[in-house]
Amino acid sequence: MRGLRLILLSVVFAGIFYYFTTHPRESPLPPTPLTVTQASGAQAFDSEEQENISVYKKALPSVVNITSTAMAFDFFYGRVPQHGQGSGFVLDKEGHILTNYHVVEGARQLEVTTSDKKKYPATVIGADPQNDLAVIKVSGAVTPAVLGDSKGLVVGQKVFAIGNPFGLSGTMTRGIISSIRSVRGERGYIDEAIQTDAAINPGNSGGPLLNSRGEVIGINSMIFTGGAEQSAGIGFAIPINTAKAVLSDLVSIGRVRRPTLGIVPLPIGPELAGELGLAADSGLLILQVVPGSAADKAGLRAGTERAYIGNAPVMLGGDFIVAVEGQDVQDQQDLSHVMQNHRAGDTVTVTIYRGKKRMEIKVVLGEMREQVRPTT
Q1: pLDDT band at residue 215, thresholds of 50, 70 and 90?
Q2: Model's pTM, two decimal places?
Q3: Can you list the domains of the chain with their CATH numbers?
């Protein structure tokens, strides 16, 4: 009898447990409705937002993504394709596109994607490794960018960058011009490079740096990473005027007719100039003249007196260049800056001291032949 009661109690408790676990109890209070605050309607953009939107809408159709395919050697699998990404912008309706040389360097295949997602195969038309510039071409309906003027840019001026950072196409960032300075790239100096704090990351290379009117004032080229492969708030763009100066050569002959005097110079400062008894405080002393060069044909003279500066042997007594085209030259960078504004075949006035005599020599610039057009 006692066992039967235990069985009945167990059944009752099991039934109660089943009821409460399968029949939720109703809340004694009605649910409280959620109250949210909604905007009264679409609000107008402020002037800063309108400027951002205007620049983006104007510039985006001319900005392209560039995918490059190069072949690399893998120890186990032999030659394997490697893919890279960059940006560029359209120059004209014929399909010429400006980008960085390092975006297309060594590429066996190039593909361009426009802002409306159309894809075109591209070929390299011309390359300027020293300035890190290249022109590629597609056959298709494209929208040209508006090229501005990089002369007279000022620190604090607003700038915008549009490109393909980390493969995120159509990305725009905004900042200011932080400085105008010469910086050293992989192949040489970028003269008057535009430093900006607008975020520039891998994939932005070759894309446009724009002013507040949506005009291209630079070509985004380098970033200072501080050890990490991402933006640290310091990016650099090649001035658009540097590109304009070589575009004709790149499109017509595939390379830049970069000028040269054909000399081996030695930069001289005030202290050394005094020790050598030179007639000016600073300039470029000609140590050697390349036979048959522009300098040789113009009659510029190299040094003939063997001497030592420290442990380095030099030839002294040559012409001492102090200016080219009226612009003072104190070192090789100054000379390169002057040469940026000229092409092979141009005639320039070189101001020298030959001994104590100041002279002006007309020189027809020769062509530097160290560049090779990349294959695609």
Answers
A1: very high
A2: 0.75
A3: 57-137 (2.40.10.10), 158-251 (2.40.10.10), 259-367 (2.30.42.10)
